[in-house]
Design a protein that fits this description.
Bound molecules: S-adenosylmethionine
CATH architecture: 3-Layer(aba) Sandwich
Number of helices: 9
Shape: globular
Largest sheet: 7 strands, mixed
CATH class: Alpha Beta
Strand content: 15-25%
Strand order of the largest sheet: 3-2-1-4-5-7-6
Number of strands: 7
């Protein structure tokens, strides 16, 4: 599915969020305080939005994804010196503790096991390493939530069908059922070895940024 949507993935992201996704990404990168000395992993990097921003802060950036076509999109951006790797987030081809900052955008819902992914991420992150996750969320306010539902469950699949792949953009709102609740996610992060967990809401709760530190 990700191979199929890759050619129009960036355009759909910008359209669906009115380009706000890039603002959320930049904010998260800023809050992670990445410096020259950091080794950054963009986990499930897709076409490399986070990797592209991270490389402005350090030369040491790895983007990993299992979709060949998504990686092709990242390659087309000429992100050198970013290293792009095809691989599985649940079996990272990285040594223990080599990463100091991990970011991942809009990927959580797609992993077959979030706890296993977090344990694997904790393995490659050095103690004190920072984690930043950007994800969709459900607005808490009932009125905003109702409007968001119409947009996310009707408008997005319709536009996605016109411009990209109908079944993939129908899956997008459905995939939110795989998102753990806030408390469940915090418990999973703690269990995997993360602390100092914080959450920031974007666009009235339509998206969220989670930050945590590897103990
Ligand atoms: C919605 S896209 C997000 C792409 C990018 N991170 C972004 O911020 O736009 C989800 C990505 O997760 C990747 N993915 C899903 N499961 C994966 C896994 N187990 N290992 C590696 N990549 C995975 C998909 O190939 C896809 O590129």
């Amino acid at each position: 599915m990700f191979d199929r949507i890759a050619p129009r993935y960036d355009r759909m992201n910008r359209l669906m969020t009115g380009r706000m996704d890039q603002r959320w990404r930049k904010e998260l990168i800023r809050r992670l305080h990445i410096g020259d000395e950091d080794y950054v992993l963009d986990l499930a990097c897709g076409t490399g939005d986070f990797a592209e921003l991270a490389r402005l802060e350090t030369r040491h950036v790895v983007g990993l994804d299992f979709s060949r076509e998504m990686l092709r999109g990242a390659q087309a951006r000429r992100l050198a010196p970013v290293q792009l790797v095809q691989g599985d987030a649940l079996r990272l081809p990285l040594r223990d503790g080599v990463i100091t900052v991990a970011v991942s955008g809009f990927a959580l819902r797609n992993f077959t096991s979030i706890p296993d992914m977090l344990v694997e991420l904790a393995r490659v992150l050095a103690p004190g390493g920072r984690l930043g996750l950007l994800e969709v969320d459900r607005p808490a306010n009932p009125v905003v939530r109702a409007g968001h539902r119409v947009y996310f469950e009707r408008v997005v699949p319709f536009v996605g069908g016109l411009l990209s792949d109908r079944s993939a953009y129908r899956y997008l709102p459905q995939s939110t059922v795989y998102m753990p609740s806030q408390d469940e996610l915090v418990a999973m992060l703690r269990e995997a070895g993360f602390a100092r967990i914080t959450k920031r809401r974007h666009a009235f709760g339509a998206a969220q940024s989670i930050m945590a530190v590897r103990q």
